[in-house]
């Protein structure tokens, strides 16, 4: 359980990097940042695929189709919505909307995965969810107060950014549940090889998206300097860094956590991504968080610590499985 928690923490620290990318490249379209990030991820995955060629040969056609779905929704569509939201509403508001993921995923997983993972009793799960929700509310209150005092704030733009962040939440509620389904139904497969497979599946999607974006911008007469924009070296370096650390290594760490922990608990640990993103955003601003923000962060951490201590109650017929063990339910309902 605690090893899984450490893997989830490492994933969150690396995933937090994706929230500052759009702030560092405000003049770049969100779609270009999305396809650029995952083009870098796909290219990074190519040599890794050679190293993992034995494990990748074991994947069947259905596995590759699943990797393609995960890549399209959990990678490209999610980051397109997130980058657009950050460019429209700034960093903190989308970060806190994404911060609702631990609550949303925990509830969704507890409703659909009780037979496989065991049911986390609502009465024991509720305090951790309440702490996480209260922490998110505290940070949100500070950020929304700052928006109200900004005379140049475009409320319609902020609202569209919030809506896009909600779509990103929907994408990333679906992704970890579906990804965990595959991993838990294939306990003998390598999480690292599965992360590499998703990178390989992402590559053709990113190449097609890049070509469509380039052609669409040319047809629309936009004067954006394609293919690498006005700051090519910075763009390439940032996309490569995010592709390596956030897309591949972060996914490896998350897969390791997903194989060790019930999905409902692993879902709550996505809170580490929110905490990392907030830390990076405040460092980029050069500001110290307000006291209420620090209180919110403390509540988030407290909720995570509480959640890790909750033991799932396995249904009859699953005797002998301890909390945190993988319950092999390959004969259960298909994901």
Concise synopsis of the structure shown:
The protein is mainly α and 335 residues long. The chain is built from 15 helices and no strands. It has helices at residues 2-15, 21-24, 30-51, 53-57, 61-89, 92-98, 101-112, 114-117, 122-148, 155-185, 191-219, 232-260, 263-268, 271-285, 291-308.
The number of distinct helices, counting runs of at least 4 residues, comes to 15
Q: How would the global form be characterised?
A: globular
Helix amount: over 70%
Largest sheet: none
Report the C-alpha radius of gyration, rounded: 20 Å
Q: Uncertain regions: pLDDT < 50 for 5+ in a row?
A: 319-335
* Class per helix and strand makeup: mainly alpha
Secondary structure layout plus pairing:
Elements: H1 2-15, H2 21-24, H3 30-51, H4 53-57, H5 61-89, H6 92-98, H7 101-112, H8 114-117, H9 122-148, H10 155-185, H11 191-219, H12 232-260, H13 263-268, H14 271-285, H15 291-308
Describe this structure in words.
With 335 residues, this protein is mainly alpha-helical. It has one domain (2-308). Helix content is 75%, strand content 0%. It has 15 helices and no strands. The protein has helices at residues 2-15, 21-24, 30-51, 53-57, 61-89, 92-98, 101-112, 114-117, 122-148, 155-185, 191-219, 232-260, 263-268, 271-285, 291-308. Helix 3 (30-51) runs antiparallel to helix 11, helix 5 (61-89) packs antiparallel against helix 10 and helix 6 packs antiparallel against helix 9 (122-148). It is globular. The two termini are 24 Å apart.
